Amino acid sequence: MDDSQLLRYARHLMLDEIGIEGQQKIMSSRVLVVGVGGLGSPAAAYLAAAGVGQLVLVDDDQVELSNLQRQILHTTGRIGQSKVESARQALHDLNPEPLIECHARRLDGPGLLELAKDADVVLDCTDNFITRHHINRACVALKKPLVSGAAIRFDGQVAVYDLRHDDATCYACLFDPSDNLAPDNCATLGVFAPLVGIIGSMQAAEALKLLVGMPAGLDGRLLQFDARTMQWHAMQVHKNPQCQVCGLAQA
């Protein structure tokens, strides 16, 4: 690290759990962030600020006025611009060091496999079940750690599925892909603005810990948050042997 980097990341270098070695791991890492809206904005911002070497951003949407209540990477002046390009500008202003790769399209299974294969960690910051299950399948197939977040109305949740381990739970163990679930996007149900910041920041925290080799506090746990009461509830999750994606039948 040069003098500028030593100063920029000084507060990380002071932490015994990170230090110079951990910061170098962060700076040499590649992270895939799918969705740069409410969750992806704070998640990507903290990852870029922390010095993640390569950030791959995926989102097929454009910036709209209704996004700006909560999607903090985007601005009024960038309405109509693709979200990934808007995010690139904001992240470059925050920290010009990370290499930012943008994909302004919705990706299916093969597309996600191609992008996830070189990622050290994958963040699911999307707002629909179909895409979440595509992401999960890619991470299971490639044995990539997945940090999943969701936020709707006043309710949020975050979990880590460290699929590098054979006994790891996957997203489909908890949320069966065959269930006919109603759309959960905030365009139809609404979302409390700070909630996405809380959950997205936690996703960044878990991702950074994975990158430096610290235990992910949410590996094997689903953490739920109620912003009405400011209460957290954690539940242990276990691998489902009958899971359609990672179960014994798929082995």
TrEMBL record:
<feature type="domain" description="THIF-type NAD/FAD binding fold">
    <location>
        <begin position="9"/>
        <end position="245"/>
    </location>
</feature>
<protein>
    <submittedName>
        <fullName>HesA/MoeB/ThiF family protein</fullName>
    </submittedName>
</protein>
<dbReference type="Pfam" id="PF00899">
    <property type="entry name" value="ThiF"/>
</dbReference>
<dbReference type="InterPro" id="IPR045886">
    <property type="entry name" value="ThiF/MoeB/HesA"/>
</dbReference>
<dbReference type="InterPro" id="IPR000594">
    <property type="entry name" value="ThiF_NAD_FAD-bd"/>
</dbReference>
<dbReference type="InterPro" id="IPR035985">
    <property type="entry name" value="Ubiquitin-activating_enz"/>
</dbReference>
